[in-house]
Design goal:
Elements: E1 13-17, E2 20-23, H1 24-45, H2 47-50, H3 58-73, H4 75-83, H5 92-95, H6 104-122, H7 128-131
Antiparallel strand pairs: 1-2
Helix pairs in contact: 1-3, 3-6, 4-6
Length: 132
């Protein structure tokens, strides 16, 4: 006899009010961004970890969070361009994320370009040191 736990059959929609629906994965994105933001702000403020001032300010990191959030919103466009080329990127269906389909490629470019943008403004190694 094979012992196995059945896969839970959860509804992906937590709450639906008319055409507006809050999905579980949206809450996971929100929680991940908020918890990561709060944790990183605490690390940046702790000068003992850096042996002096951190290589970036809390305000600089807040700018990074804006870029990451925008990158996540562009994932749908990446899906349309790479995996569903029959859908025009200019159509309303391309922006409708409720039909599924998000791509890593669409969100990686803005998130990866942030250290370059930051280093041009603040010096070449200021932002990259935070990641190491």
């Amino acid at each position: 006899m094979l012992l196995a736990c059945p896969f839970p059959n959860l509804d992906p929609i937590l709450i639906q009010l008319g055409p507006f629906a809050i999905r579980w994965y949206a809450l996971a994105y929100i929680a991940g961004i908020l918890l990561g933001w709060l944790y990183a702000r605490a690390i940046i403020r702790n000068q003992k970890l850096w042996g002096g001032p951190a290589p970036m300010t809390v305000t600089d990191f807040d700018d990074f969070i804006v870029w990451v959030t925008l990158a996540s919103s562009r994932r749908r466009l990446g899906y349309v361009l790479f995996y569903n080329p029959a859908t025009s990127p200019a159509s309303a269906e391309a922006l409708h994320s409720g039909k599924g389909g998000m791509s890593f490629h669409g969100g990686f470019q803005p998130a990866a370009s942030w250290p370059w943008c930051c280093s041009r403004r603040a010096g070449p190694f200021r932002c990259s040191r935070l990641a190491t």
